[in-house]
UniProtKB/TrEMBL annotation:
Pfam families (alphabetical): TetR_C_3, TetR_N
Keyword rRNA processing tagged: no
Domain HTH tetR-type: 12-72
Record keywords, A-Z: DNA-binding
Coiled-coil stretches: none
Gene3D superfamilies: Homeodomain-like, Tetracycline Repressor, domain 2
Lineage: Bacteria, Pseudomonadati, Pseudomonadota, Alphaproteobacteria, Rhodobacterales
Domain of life of the source: Bacteria
A GO biological process held by the record: negative regulation of DNA-templated transcription
Residue ranges of the annotated DNA-binding region, renumbered to this chain: 35-54
Protein name from the UniProt record: TetR family transcriptional regulator C-terminal domain-containing protein
């Protein structure tokens, strides 16, 4: 399919169906375990029809990851230098936790890619992602230097936020195995994480 040509509504619908099916398959089977046949079957399309939209499994995977990264980074982009620092950071924590609840498949897809060494998105991680994280780390460092939050390592603060929020998607089976089924643990986690980060960020 010519990527530069405008897509019809049917083409947009089929492409969306392929990506949605691939998200299911990749998040369950990983990149290596996923097959084009399984993705096509899940999408309700023939394999030749799928190949009209994407030249192969890797192209589908990269399209998913690129869209996911854009979605995943929106809350970080939203950190506002004119806002109240503790509220901005705690708000970021809570948005990330909500995304773990709403988009668990997407989180697991990204985690699987990183565990494998990020072979398909290393250029994104070392390029736009690093640029954004460095920019927001500089903002957090400025807040700390001004005494508006506790002195923390900005990069490791961001990493800790990712770890404590995405855990609830990436290790969902473990969380539910320990705490039981249902969604109540997200409410409890939000309360706990808010208290945790408020205490950690409170200026001395």
């Amino acid at each position: 399919m010519d990527a530069s040509a405008p897509r019809t509504r049917i083409q947009e619908r089929n492409r969306a169906a392929i990506l949605e099916a691939a998200l299911d398959v990749f998040s369950q089977a990983g990149f290596r375990g996923a097959t084009l046949d399984r993705i096509a079957k899940t999408a309700g399309l023939s394999k030749p029809n799928l190949l009209y939209y994407f030249p192969g499994k890797e192209a589908i995977h990269v399209a998913l990851l690129a869209g996911l990264l854009d979605l995943w980074l929106d809350p970080l982009r939203a950190l506002d230098d004119s806002g109240e620092p503790v509220e901005e950071i705690v708000g970021y924590v809570l948005r990330k936790l909500e995304m773990a609840r709403e988009f668990p498949r997407e989180s697991r897809l990204f985690a699987n890619e990183i565990v494998q060494g990020a072979p398909r998105i290393a250029d994104i991680i070392e390029g736009p992602l690093k640029t954004l994280v460095d920019e927001k780390a500089a903002l957090i460092g400025h807040w700390a230097d001004a005494g508006r939050i506790a002195r923390v390592d900005p990069h490791h603060l961001i990493f800790s936020i990712w770890a404590t929020t995405q855990h609830y998607a990436d290790f969902d089976a473990q969380v539910r195995g320990i705490l039981g089924p249902g969604e109540a643990h997200f409410t409890d986690a939000a309360e706990f994480l808010e208290q945790l980060y408020r205490r950690a960020l409170r200026p001395g």
